[in-house]
Amino acid sequence: MKKYLLMLMIFIMVFTFTGCKSSTSRDNSIETSKDYIQYENDTYNFSLQLPKSWEGKYYIEEVNNELYFYHKNDLDDGRKIELFTLHISNTKEEWEELQKQYEDICLIDKIYEDEQGIISITYPTDVPYGDDEKEYCEEYNKMEDDISNIQKSIDRIK
User: What are the UniProt keywords, alphabetically (predicted)?
Assistant: First the structure.
């Protein structure tokens, strides 16, 4: 657990001080082009493309075989506003177990499968912002609309 917390702290510091074109750890990298933000995860051997409009508006936490994509805001209330979570299953058995874990919580979709494993996605089930946080809610909703295209961009690193 300490290892993950240390990695998270390093990620946040690197991302904060160097922007999006940086290596977030030895296993992940984020590069920005004029059209999109390329995220590569060497641990799980996949990449995806985030819209350029997401620059500076999200952060990622990696815990075990899950990558949490959060909406970044300047509210100082400690909430983590989840956009989506990617789940990595190395075998069909792991995928089936994951489905059982989520069947009563929320929908889990398989979005990529190959000989290396299965990548699936879940979405938050709660309302992220209150009525008095309209600005954040609008930005979140715009980002939420991009998620289906992000899913389509997932590919294995060659």
Answer: Signal
H or E stretch covering 24: strand 22-25
* Cα–Cα distance for residue pair 26/76, rounded to 1 Å: 30
pTM of the model: 0.78
For residue 52, give both structure tokens: 């350029």
Contacts of residue 134, Cβ cutoff 8 Å, sequence gap at least 6:
none
Q: For the residues of 56-122, what is the DSSP string, one character each?
A: TSEEEEEETTEEEEEE-----S---EEEEEEEEESSHHHHHHHHHHHTTT--EEEEEEETTEEEEEE
Task: Tell how far CA 130 is from the center of its chain.
Answer: 23
Handedness of CA 93, 68, 143, 37 (dihedral sign): negative
Burial 19-38 (b: 16+ CB within 10 A, else e): ebebbbeeebbbeeeeebbb
pLDDT in tens, 14-65: 333 323 222 333 356 666 667 899 999 999 999 999 999 999 999 999 999 9
